[in-house]
Design goal:
This protein is α/β, with parallel strands linked by helices and 257 residues long. 25% of the residues lie in helices and 32% in strands. The protein contains 6 helices and 15 strands. The protein folds into 2 domains: 56 residues, Vcp-like ATPase, Chain A, domain 2; 186 residues, Rossmann fold (3-Layer(aba) Sandwich), CATH 3.40.50. It is globular and about 65 Å long. It binds S-adenosyl-L-homocysteine. The site of S-adenosyl-L-homocysteine (SAH) has 23 residues, from helix 3 and strand 8.
């Protein structure tokens, strides 16, 4: 069902050149770009997908932002997990509604948003207080305070231990995830899944060694290659540029004792 855009909502404005602007609608305000301005009132009460003209006759289209639109625009302290990888992590970790997930570190909360969107109850461990706060703000900014009720972040060092039992999933984005493997094993229920994201394959290899030394099985490491295609008439080919590397996704499942 379509619902009119309201003041207080976040919207994404896109132009013909592919530029994207994330703004919060406020009664009486103006949005300015070098391509002219548009009043928020021209958007409030309207639908998504509406095209408006700026004062300099440029065309802008208004949308509610998708999760990936938001993540790429939200304030970031730490490097975020990119949407292509977050999507894979959610699937590899088999996150389900109500799943009890420990996530560390939470950084800017990009991955947290995907875990929460999949319905998980997320407990975050983040060593930096400023990042912990930013993550909570970012999550509230997209999901709203009510849904963010499934999200709690504690300022803690994950290498020192995980104070939880019977977790369904542990999701790590830490420089040295192998330092958390024993703790993850102690906190996960049998059959629980550990997923770790690491920019370097050396980190992934060290993590795999740590898993081999413990009660883990079904281990795998993958990278997600995401290549866009240019499709225009008969010119149909891969895009010339792509993001060649982000990180590796390593998965393991906890055996019974
Ligand atoms: N996945 C996050 C980005 C995480 S960046 C996102 O998508 O937004 C890695 C984070 O791990 C940083 O915020 C860093 O402060 C935190 N960190 C590093 N070592 C840690 C530790 N031992 N315990 C908890 N958090 C840690």
């Amino acid at each position: 069902m379509s619902r009119a855009l309201e003041a207080g909502e976040l919207v994404l404005l896109t132009d013909r050149k592919g530029r994207r602007y994330l703004i919060k609608l406020e009664e009486g305000r103006e949005f300015h770009t070098h391509a002219g301005s548009v009043g928020h009132n021209a958007l409030i009460g309207g639908a998504e997908g509406v095209q408006v003209r700026t004062s300099r006759n440029a065309e802008l289209t208004v949308w509610r932002p998708t999760l990936s639109d938001y993540v790429l625009k939200m304030p970031r302290g730490a490097q975020v997990v990119y949407p292509k990888d977050s999507a894979a992590i959610v699937m590899q970790a088999d996150v389900f509604p109500g799943a009890r997930v420990l996530e560390s570190g939470v950084g800017s909360g990009a991955l947290s948003l995907s875990l929460l969107r999949a319905g998980a109850e997320v407990l975050g461990y983040e060593i930096r207080e400023d990042f912990a706060q930013q993550a909570v703000e970012n999550v509230r900014g997209f999901l709203g305070a009510e849904e963010a009720g499934r999200y709690r972040v504690e300022v803690r060092d994950c290498y020192q231990g995980i104070e939880a039992e019977g977790l369904d999933r542990v999701v790590l984005d830490l420089p040295e995830p192998w330092q958390a493997v024993l703790h993850a094993g102690a906190s996960l229920r049998p059959g629980g899944i550990l997923v770790a994201y690491t920019p370097s394959i050396v980190q992934a290899a060290r993590l795999r060694e740590a898993c081999e030394a413990g009660a883990w099985a079904q281990t795998s490491t993958v990278e997600i290659l995401h290549r866009g295609w240019h499709i225009k008439g008969d010119a149909v080919r891969p895009e010339h540029r792509m993001v060649g590397h982000t990180g590796f996704v390593t998965t393991a499942r906890r055996l019974a004792d």
